Amino acid sequence: MKHIFFIIVFCTLNFTNGQSCKVKIQAISSSYHGDCKSGLAHGQGEATGTDRYSGSFKKGYPEGQGTYTWKNGDVYEGEWKKGMMDGEGKLTVSNGTVKTGFWKKGDYLGIHKNPFRKLDKSPNISSYTLNKDAKSQNNSIRFYLRKDQNVENNPEINVVVHNGNFTNLIQSGLFTEIQNVTYPFKAKVFFGTEFIEFEIYQPGFWNIKTDITNINGLNTKN
Fold first, then answer.
1. Which sequence spans correspond to the domains of the chain?
2. Closest by alpha carbon to 203, among 165, 171, 159, 174?
3. How many C-beta atoms surround the C-beta of residue 208 within 10 A?
4. According to the model, what pLDDT value does residue 153 have?
């Protein structure tokens, strides 16, 4: 569930300690009690309207730790940034469903802050990157390989799965792809004797690009 906030330029004026104090979220702009700075809610306070928020404010927006209650009974307790759920928190839906984890600009990321984690690599792996293709909905992972700055066509890989699963492995020109991946997916992928190890938490289409730079006198053993 994603909650959308409407930010207004002209906000209801609330008087705290003799000064007018604005809250820049329309749904909680009817009444404000708390700290103020330069005419804006700033510091600890409580704002109400059709919804209710209690916690930290910055320049008129919920920011920092706070609790927001929607008119339908949903409650979010956690971190905020510029009026949006951003950071670690817990969302309790009015039907009793609880979602914990991390949010970014109001979007739920999952129980992990980052969508993937690099675990290990062999010495001759100079670098490897993981990037999600937001335009594709396929649950696949595509592997690209360069050896000593030269692109390898149809790279030969051996995928040792520690968690999750996949059904197909195809080779197509510049890449090798595993398809119908079940996430979270944790694996050790070998390119001959070289390897990378990683874990991906977010479903989707991922590109993994690996560079191998052979170092004279350095032999990798399994």
1. 13-109, 116-212
2. 165
3. 20
4. 95
Please give the model's pTM, rounded to 2 decimal places.
Answer: 0.65
Reading the block at residue 3, the tokens are 């909650």
pLDDT for residue 123: 96
User: pLDDT at position 14, please?
Assistant: 56
pLDDT reported for residue 4 = 53
Identity at 99, one-letter amino acid code: K
Q: Smallest Cα–Cα separation from 208: which of 112, 109, 185?
A: 185
13: which 2 tokens?
A: 């004026």
Distances (CA, A) of 35 to 13, 22, 50, 118: 14, 11, 21, 43
C-alpha–C-alpha distance, residues 137 and 160, integer Å? 24
Overall fold of domain 13-109: 2.20.110
C-alpha to C-alpha distance for 220 and 204, rounded to whole angstroms: 32
Residues in the chain with pLDDT values less than 70: 1-19, 216-222
**Owner of token pair 């009015």:** 94
